[in-house]
Amino acid sequence: MARSKKIGILTAGGDCPGLNAAIRGVGKTAIVKYGMEVIGISSGFLGLIEKEYIPLKEHMLSGILTLGGTILGTSREKPFKKSKQFKVDKPSLIVETYNELGLDCLVCIGGNGTQKTAARLVDEGLNIIGIPKTIDNDVWGTDQTFGFDSALWIATDAIDRLHSTANSHKRIMVIEIMGHHAGWLTLYSGMAGGGDVILLPELDYDMDIVNKYLLKRVENKKPYSIVVVAEGIKKPSRVESAASYVAKKIEQGTGIETRKTILGYIQRGGSPSPMDRILATRFGAYAVDLIAREDYGKMVIKKGEKIKDIPLSEVGSNVRLVPKDHTLIKKARGLDICFGSEKTLI
Ligand code: F6P
Description:
- 38% of the residues lie in helices and 16% in strands.
- The chain has helices at residues 19-33, 45-49, 90-101, 112-123, 148-169, 184-192, 207-219, 242-254, 274-292, 312-315, 327-334, and strands at residues 6-11, 37-41, 53-55, 105-110, 128-132, 172-177, 197-199, 225-230, 258-262, 298-303, 306-311.
- The strands form two sheets. A seven-stranded mixed sheet has the order 3-2-1-4-5-10-11, sandwiched between helices. Strands 7-8-6-9 form a four-stranded parallel sheet, sandwiched between helices.
- Strand 10 and strand 11 (306-311) form a beta hairpin.
- The chain is elongated and about 80 Å long.
- Bound molecules: 6-O-phosphono-beta-D-fructofuranose (F6P).
């Protein structure tokens, strides 16, 4: 009989709801379906560098499906990034730990940066499987990452709550949503929460157009407005937050009392939504099926309703941004939602 496999699993980059569901999906499938051994690596790639890990037994995976965060811990450690200060050869240490542990494969759960590191470790000769996660929903090659749906619920709820207080005071409310490069969360929560103005990192905007639009709303007997901005929108100053910058420009340009809310890390915390629990579990189970067939060097993806995989090398430095002509943007423009540029209805 063939020797049962031994696999490592780590979570890297910013955390998000659903990481524990994915760890559980990988761990339970590996142990129950295939009789594999599972090693949990602490704090992302740092755990491999500093040799911090623990064997994960099946009972340790019970009760974690609904937990936010990650039981393994995470870090933004980038082992291939050159550092003048520390001369340690981190990639070699990672390979050394992988070999010392006798791993057959390492499962890397993370966003774009993690998948890029994972692809480089494939080049170093390791067997790797990537699983995409992030609230930003911007990992290249997959229609969706887990974490996004949970964050969408949180962001939408926050926008919903701004409507009543904005209406009471006849104010403009600016809310800043996470997303440095990609505006998926801002676009979706802005639409779901009935935002009047939505500003995305992918689209150029003009504050004069935004202000004219907001004044027009007042003329049209709409006494309050909700402005949803992504943290990564283009802005001249590097010190101010996107929300502060936009709120200041609105108050100066319209004379209407304006307040800002920065939602921040609340978007990344707490229990995953049912959809994220399911997606993370499906990703985890599929990852182990790939390992069982020794189909390494892949990242698990969602395409339509199906779970599939692509070569990790395809992900590279690519980021999945909101296309300027995204169908939701076109539809929103038809509803007179302002994206900060001249209105085009197609
Ligand atoms: O998880 C992605 C993300 O939430 C981005 O939207 C955000 O800019 C970034 O993480 C900030 O995370 P940290 O402060 O943990 O580096």
